[in-house]
Amino acid sequence: MARIVVGTEDFDVGAEIAALTAGRTDIGGIGCFVGTVRDTAPGAPEVSALTLEHYPAMTQKALAGIVAEAERRWPLLGCTVVHRVGRMLPGENIVLVLAASAHRQAALDATAFLIDWLKTKAPFWKREDRADGSSGWVEAREADDAAAARWAKA
Amino acid sequence: MARIVVGTEDFDVGAEIAALTAGRTDIGGIGCFVGTVRDTAPGAPEVSALTLEHYPAMTQKALAGIVAEAERRWPLLGCTVVHRVGRMLPGENIVLVLAASAHRQAALDATAFLIDWLKTKAPFWKREDRADGSSGWVEAREADDAAAARWAKA
Amino acid sequence: MIDVLYFAWLRERTGLAEERIALPAGTTTVADLIEMLAARHAAAFANRQTIRCAVNQEFADPSVVLHPGDEVAFFPPVTGG
Amino acid sequence: MIDVLYFAWLRERTGLAEERIALPAGTTTVADLIEMLAARHAAAFANRQTIRCAVNQEFADPSVVLHPGDEVAFFPPVTGG
User: Fold this and answer.
1) Helix, strand or coil for residue A30?
2) Are A137 and D9 in contact (CB < 8 Å)?
């Protein structure tokens, strides 16, 4: 039921929501998260581009596992994950998560869960090119581990 | 900075996100919630249409107050609330909430906050027409009060 | 005088979207107004636990004091979103 | 033989996207493999706390036992989304 896409092409949020909900009258709420490239971070040089590398053989498997876990935890009526790879400029879309359910709480919680788990369990790596000419791999954030750990089952 | 729209016309989620993020390179995440008309609820007759009534003089004021509170609590870079009124059929959009921030946690939390508060503090009332020919006002749910109460400040 | 507005089933049960009411002499609270209106619209005000009030487009407790020119609205708990 | 894949700065520091490694006789764990690889690629494996491993596309602890034909990947903590 879930739609999982990994590729270099941009996505159209409106079209993805339309595809998820087409012909459905049992959905009460759709949660959505769009991650975008930003060029500014406090105390860091300006970012001029981001390049996303991934581990293709593992990516689909990891995303399917994350979606399956969300479907196990919440009564979802549809789910979409689109993650771009390759080079992107500030302002461009990186990732889209959609979760549809009869009730808004399930839709919103599943959306937060999907992006939190994706950030810590799916094999993507960001390399940034900076306006000062330097470049480097983005380091994992402890805040992301903490966000993902919120969803651990007792 | 926030865009607040109340009217009978449907909205275009993609266009609203594009308007919110146009020309911006400081946004890292956009949280979104779309509420839709569903025709099914366990143990209840099928819904054939929903009519949304509101208190026009109070609606804009209430929504502006809810958005201002979200902006006070999270470092938002943009915020959109669109709420439809009038008659809607199953599958149609009712409400859209968007919240943009540098970081995803703020965007997602603000989105959940906005819809939770809107559901308990903005003067809208739903009347449903049912497939069995009956009709009636939708009753407020205790779950909505509980959801809104999560955001109470200590 | 104050303007009193009704929404949703309060509008249906009073049969009115709006009416003008003369405030009595002395202090009148929202609770006092509800007593006055319940005398006219018994069915609408039968279950006061399910009635919410706004004065000048802000949610108001029963203890709020009314003034001439106020816009007072009565409605059920909201169900938008 | 096993296939060993490197991603992100592990690919850059080893100078390799992939290499084939002969498993030694006896039981070999992910931890044993890291010791073998560290001898060849000292700079890449200098800080083992920042290295993650997947065996056959699943995250794997150092204690996981390897078998001929496995695909073993080494990479930094993920930073997608």
Assistant:
1) strand
2) yes
Q: Distances from the Cα of D6 to the Cαs of A84, B55, D44, in angstroms?
A: 20, 61, 10
CB pairs under 8 A between B and C: 74
Judged by DSSP in three states, D26 sits in coil
Q: What architecture is domain B2-149? A: Alpha-Beta Complex (3.90)
- Provide the whole-model pTM: 0.95
B14 close to A (CB below 8 A): yes
Q: What is the ipTM of this complex?
A: 0.94
Q: Do A83 and D71 touch (CB under 8 A)?
A: no
Residues A40-60: tens digit of each pLDDT: 877 888 999 999 999 999 999
Neighbours of chain D (3+ CB pairs under 8 A): A
Domain boundaries, chain A: 2-149
Q: Long-range contacts made by residues A135-141, C-beta under 8 angstroms, separation at least 24?
A: A137/D8, A137/D9, A137/D76, A137/D79, A138/A50, A138/D79, A139/D77, A139/D79, A140/D76, A140/D77, A140/D78, A140/D79, A141/D79
Q: Is the pLDDT of residue A153 over 90?
A: no
Which CATH number is correct for D2-75, 3.10.20.30, 3.40.50.1100, 3.40.50.1110, 3.65.10.10? 3.10.20.30
Question: So where are chain D's domains?
Answer: 2-75
C69 at interface of B, judged by CB pairs closer than 8 A: no
Cα Rg, chain B, nearest whole Å: 16
- Calpha distance D16→D22 (Å, rounded): 17
pLDDT tens-place string over residues C9-56: 999 999 999 999 999 889 999 999 999 999 999 999 999 999 999 999
CA A78 to chain centre: 15
Burial class (CB in 10 A: 0-12, 13-18, 19+), B150: exposed
Give the closest-approach CA distance of B60 to chain A in angstroms.
23
B15 touches chain A (CB under 8 A): yes
